[in-house]
Write a structure and sequence with these properties.
The complex is a heterodimer of chains A (78) and B (1004).
Chain A (H helix, E strand, L loop, with lengths): L11 E4 L2 H11 L8 E3 L3 H4 L10 E7 L5 E9 L1
Parallel strand pairs in A: 2-4
Antiparallel strand pairs in A: 1-3, 3-4
Chain B lengths: L19 H7 L50 E10 L4 H10 L18 H21 L4 H13 L13 E5 L3 E9 L1 H11 L9 H8 L6 H9 L8 H16 L2 H9 L1 H4 E8 L1 H9 L3 H6 L13 E7 L8 E2 L5 E2 L2 H21 L4 H19 L20 H5 L5 H6 L7 E8 L7 E5 H4 L3 E5 L5 H10 L7 E5 L5 E3 L5 H7 L5 E5 L5 E5 L9 E9 L4 E3 L4 H4 L7 E6 L3 H11 L20 H10 L4 E2 L1 H7 L13 E3 L2 E5 H6 L8 E4 L5 E5 L2 E4 L4 H4 L5 H10 L1 H22 L12 H26 L11 H27 L5 H8 L5 H8 L3 E2 L1 E2 L2 E2 L24 E2 L9 H36 L3 E2 L5 E2 L5 E3 L23 H12 L3 H9 L12 H7 L4
Parallel strand pairs in B: 8-16, 9-15
Antiparallel strand pairs in B: 1-5, 2-3, 3-4, 6-7, 8-17, 9-16, 10-13, 11-12, 11-13, 14-15, 14-17, 18-20, 19-20, 21-22, 22-23, 24-27, 25-26, 28-29, 29-30
Helix pairs in contact in B: 2-4, 3-4, 5-8, 6-7, 8-9, 13-14, 18-19, 22-27, 26-27, 28-29, 29-31
The chains are: A alpha+beta (78), B alpha+beta (1004).
Chain lengths: 78, 1004
């Protein structure tokens, strides 16, 4: 199958480790469930090194028209 | 909280089903008679208008709370239904529960009792799983009904109950409120054979007792066999086996071997499907047995909502105040639709009871039951598909409960989101260039009607008395006063003088609108925030609202009969907020594209173009006249002298309106470069790109880098100056301005004839079959495209020829050039050639078979047979051309009509989806449940209004801002340089570091 993560329009997805997640949650003063969601079956997560599981948080780093880089976090759900 | 007490603060709201007991408890009275009023016009006790249900007639007293009409909110009553009926609103949930629970023991059936071992344990596990899913759905803000749906989907598949092992049947739902159980009944053939056994053509007849004896089964006696014969028999869970035995027994008794084989070989043969109607009472019994923990596993709180409450046994009767009757002119009473419906319900309810007591046959009872169900259904919703709506005598469908709430005119969208307000006015708008863009001209008759509250104190006492003394009809007057004791007195022509004497500090005076008051002004459709802005009042004679023409773009208003609404603000906070946030000048920059939306339009642009394009000279009188409507009353040094008379150029006069330190350089829409240095315009043309609405450079820069106020002053003055300029030069347009000399006309004709020839050549090539198709296109499309492009080139050529013959002073050219109005295409069509008419992006191809009009031969591919209009608007179109033109024009009209309705709906959906999103103080955008939507507003956290509008460079130019701040810090460049470049030399460095020191100091 095509590895969509190689496509130029698909931004970088990386899974955060526990400390990083804590950092993000603290920065925005939120619970994990307040994050935007991404499905576990999302093609962008399929070809990551580690398999994403429900409850993980991924960092999406995309090119932005207004800022060079826009960083967004998403909670992986079923 | 008492039943009548008004809640002061709502802590929380819980939704659930209502216990019939609760209906009875809150009921003020039971309603038993369908009558409303007696012959004397008094409400009948225990009737639909019982005085205990509240009062609507003034003077009467409520029998429940003792209050009078107006203060009594009304009280619910109730009707005891003769038989349970289904609540339509829950038809779907009822169906789901029927499908998901066991028909015998009413428990949830997530696991098949026959296929799985330990079915009970597994079923409990599944229920725990549902609860877990519900918890997760709640956490993720998802819809818990999705969990219910998937749980039911699982439970429905099961054939045998995991708890009691009963066989489960499928439920068929016939909309709106009928449910059937698809059960298995003994096959018709079986009873036929039974009959044959009992009445054989030969041999001895068999009696049911014989069969029972042969069967030798205590459960299956002669009675069951008689039931089977009469057709009232229903197999229960283990009957299949018994029926097989019966088949065998029959075979033995009758010596019918083949029957034996037939019947026992296949179980399917023994039973067939039959629809068994579930009466609401059956369903109620079924639901009553569902255990609380099973309800809970589906996400329904059993304490608040027991499923059996979805089947009504008591019907609440809404208070009279919710269904007031009206007295017509002739004294006849006309009842509310809800009352009519309740009358129907009570009548049927009574007939039902009477019939049942009289022991009427089952068929009649069932009919009445269905009728009662129909009336209760339509009482709640009269727009159910598949049910004829209940109608008024006149044939109009009744407006029942859900119709009151639903849709655009319903309670939510119509009454709650769209309230009607006082202190508002609506009238036609018209232009007034003498007003500031912040102002609105308010007709005196509006100003005398709309009031502002004045709190009288020592300092404004005289003023207040003056208003009151003027009375309600003379303009700066007053309509009402409120005394210390709270009594409100109307100011009339008669009592005004007298009342004015009495006014003292502490009173409130409702005075008329006067100049300088702030009001809110709005034009529908309110598509963006600039559709509602605050204006300052200028009271004027006549009947229209007057606007400065520069505020037309934000409102999207014109003066062809547009009406606008005005709202007078009623408290100080509102007025302050409106003045600070909503005033027109604060809205100059549009958040949509971050540039100014208010600026010069149309004639203003033509005016500045005339003033600056050729840079004309004016003598002193003329120059002062041009600037007379601005704040400039002294001319700068003249630009020179002409025949001994000093003159000023247009650009100099324009520069007078600019701030002295403005520096700008940009390309105008006329195509030349505008240079502004130190507030002096040196070259270029001021046109749409400089001062226009929708991003005029100068206006945009002033509003962003100076202030909104500076921008407002500039736009006002530009409008004034350019209107004066227009008057100075004079500006008009006529048909002659679009005419071209005969030689140009000949050239145009020639160009079009050439095109015709080329089209004919293309057609010939095509017909000879020599045409090369374009990639990816069939031959006929290729031909079409080539013809289209040839003809479009022809029109462009015609336009170019026409343009060549128009002078630069041609008013239409000036307007197109400056961007004031119209385009060169419009000019081309007026002077040269209208060109190809299109429907659906193609040449016109419709009409008759193989031709567009009967004037052409079939399959004529030529230009004029497919809507090419050779004429210009000035010369006038031929009949055929006119017809084709109308076809194209009609498509345009239809498109706009369709587009507005489509985009309106899209807009509504977007607004509803986004309305609760809010940027928080930490820069994130979140919805009401604090879920993050954007981590940084717009990814860059900046408002489009505060960004630089230039396309190149960073959106927020930090360096530029830093420079500006530093520049402001220091008085001159030297001081700044001194501060920024100052560098402390290193001290006390060891001599070993001399090499380094020499290098750092820059040289040997």
């Amino acid at each position: 199958m095509v590895d969509v993560s190689q496509h130029e329009l698909v931004p970088d997805h990386t899974i955060l480790d526990g400390d990083e997640i804590e950092g993000v949650l603290e920065e925005y003063n939120i619970k994990k469930t307040d994050l935007p969601k991404i499905k576990r079956t999302d093609p962008a997560l399929r070809d990551l090194e580690a398999d994403a599981e429900a409850g993980d948080v991924v960092r999406v780093t995309r090119d932005s028209r207004t800022t060079d880089r826009a960083v967004v976090y998403r909670l992986v759900v079923e | 909280m008492s039943a009548q007490g008004t809640p002061q603060e709502i802590g929380q709201i819980s939704f659930g089903l209502m216990d019939p007991e609760e209906y009875r408890e809150m009921s003020a009275t039971k309603v038993i008679t369908a009558d409303t009023y007696d012959d004397d016009g008094f409400p009948i006790d225990m009737g639909l208008m019982d005085p205990r249900l509240g009062v609507i007639d003034p003077g009467l007293e409520c029998k429940t709370c003792g209050k009078h009409s107006g203060s009594c909110n009304g009280h619910f009553g109730h009707i005891e239904l003769a038989a349970p009926v289904i609540h339509v609103g829950f038809a779907k949930l009822i169906r789901r529960l029927l499908r998901g629970t066991c028909r015998e023991c009413s428990r949830l059936t997530p696991v098949d009792g026959r296929r799985e071992a330990d079915a009970e344990d597994k079923a409990e596990q599944r229920k725990d799983h549902y609860r877990e899913q519900l918890r997760r759905a709640k956490e993720l803000n998802k819809d818990p009904s999705d969990v219910l749906k998937s749980a039911i989907r699982e439970c429905r598949k099961v054939d045998y109950c995991p708890y009691c092992g009963a066989k489960q049947f499928d439920i068929k739902h016939e909309k709106p409120t009928t449910y059937y159980e698809i059960i298995e009944v003994p096959h018709g053939e079986l009873s036929k054979r039974l009959e044959r056994a009992m009445d054989p053509p030969e041999g001895e007849a068999v009696r049911p007792t014989d069969i029972a004896e042969e069967l030798d089964d205590n459960d299956f006696g002669a009675d069951r066999i008689r039931e089977l014969l009469s057709g009232s028999y229903r197999p229960d869970r283990n009957d299949i086996e018994k029926l097989k035995n019966l088949g065998r027994a029959l075979g033995r008794l009758n010596d019918l071997d083949e029957l034996d084989v037939d019947v026992s070989s296949s179980a399917e043969y023994l039973v067939e499907e039959d629809m068994d109607k579930l009466m609401p009472s059956d369903i109620r019994d079924w639901f009553e047995e569902i255990p609380d923990q099973d309800i809970d596993a589906l996400g329904i709180n059993p304490e608040r909502s027991r499923p059996e409450w979805m089947i009504l046994t008591v019907l609440p009767v809404p208070p009279v105040t919710a269904r007031p009757s009206i007295t017509l002119d002739n004294g006849q009473r006309s009842e509310d639709d809800l009352t009519h419906k309740l009358v129907d319900i009570i009548r049927i309810n009574q007939r039902f009871m009477e019939n049942r007591e009289a022991g009427a046959p089952q068929l009649i009872i069932e009919d009445l039951w269905e009728l009662l169900q129909y009336h209760v259904t339509t009482f709640m919703d009269n727009e159910i598909s598949g049910t004829p709506p209940a109608r008024h005598r006149s044939g109009r469908p009744l407006k029942t409960l859900s119709q009151r709430l639903k849709g655009k005119e319903g309670r939510f969208r119509g009454s709650l989101s769209g309230k009607r307000v006082n202190f508002s006015a609506r009238t036609v708008i018209s232009p007034d260039p003498t007003l500031s863009l912040n102002e609105v001209g308010v007709p005196d008759r509006v100003a005398t009607e709309m009031t502002q509250t004045m709190n009288v104190n020592e300092r404004n006492l005289d003023e207040a008395q003056r208003y009151v003394a003027n009375g309600p009809e003379t303009h700066p007057g007053a309509n009402y006063v409120r005394r210390h004791d709270g009594r409100r007195l109307k100011v009339t022509e008669k009592n005004c003088e007298e009342l004015a004497e009495k006014v003292e500090p502490g009173w409130e005076v409702s005075r008329h609108l006067i100049d300088g008051d702030i009001v809110i002004f709005n034009r529908q459709p309110s598509l963006h925030r600039m559709s509602i802005m605050a204006h300052e009042v200028v009271v004027m004679p006549y009947k229209t609202f007057r606007l400065n023409t520069t505020v037309c773009p934000p409102y999207n208003a014109d003066f062809d009969g547009d009406e606008m609404n005005m709202h007078a603000l009623q408290n100080e906070e509102a007025r302050a907020e409106a003045r600070v946030l909503m005033r027109v000048q604060e809205q100059m920059l549009s958040p949509r594209f971050g540039e100014n939306i208010i600026g010069a339009i149309q004639d203003h642009i033509t005016g500045t173009y005339l003033l600056t394009h050729t840079n004309p000279q004016f003598n002193e009188t003329q120059a002062l006249d041009l600037l007379r409507a601005t704040r400039i009353d002294e001319l700068p040094a003249p630009d020179g002298e002409d025949e001994g008379e000093a003159y000023w150029t247009g650009r100099t006069l324009f520069s007078e309106l600019l701030p002295d330190d403005l520096n700008l350089e940009f390309v105008s829409s006329a195509g030349d470069t505008v240079v502004i240095e130190d507030g002096q315009m040196l070259e270029g043309t001021i046109d749409e790109d400089a001062v226009g609405a929708f991003g005029g450079e100068v206006v945009d820069t002033l509003a962003k880098e100076y202030s909104k106020t500076r921008g407002r002053i500039f736009v006002n003055e530009i409008a004034a100056l350019s209107m004066r300029t227009m008057m100075h030069f004079g500006f008009s347009i006529s048909i002659d301005d679009e005419s071209v000399p005969p030689e140009a006309e000949n050239q145009i004709d020639e160009a079009i004839d050439n095109a015709y020839e080329r089209v004919q050549e293309l057609i010939d090539v095509y017909e000879r079959g020599e045409m090369e198709p374009l990639p990816g296109r069939p031959l006929d499309e290729t031909l079409e495209m080539k013809i289209m492009s040839t003809l479009s080139k022809a029109r462009d050529t015609a336009g170019d020829i026409a343009e060549d013959h128009f002078g630069d002073a041609n008013p239409a050219v000036i307007m197109a050039d400056s961007g004031a109005r119209g385009s060169m295409l419009n000019l081309t069509q007026m002077a040269g050639c209208v060109g190809q008419q299109a429907v659906r992006g193609e040449r016109i191809n419709r009409g008759y078979e193989d031709r567009t009009l009967s004037h052409f031969k079939p399959n004529d591919l030529s230009a004029d047979a497919h809507g090419f209009v050779e004429a210009s608007y000035r010369t006038g179109l031929g009949p055929k051309e006119f017809f084709f033109h109308a076809m194209g024009g009609r498509e345009g009209l239809v498109d706009t009509a369709v587009r507005t309705s489509k985009s309106g709906y899209l807009q509504r959906r977007l607004i509803n989806a986004l309305s609760e999103l809010e940027t928080q103080y930490d820069g994130t955008v979140r919805d009401t449940s604090d879920t993050i939507v954007q981590f940084e507003f717009g990814e860059d956290g900046t408002s489009p209004v505060h960004n630089s509008s230039s396309l190149e460079g960073p959106t927020v130019d930090v360096e530029e801002i830093a420079n500006r701040v530093v520049d402001e810090e220091f008085e001159d460049a030297a001081e700044r340089e001194d501060f920024l470049a100052r560098e402390e030399g290193p001290t006390n460095i060891s001599e070993h570091a001399d090499d380094w020191w020499m290098e750092a100091a820059g040289g040997d």
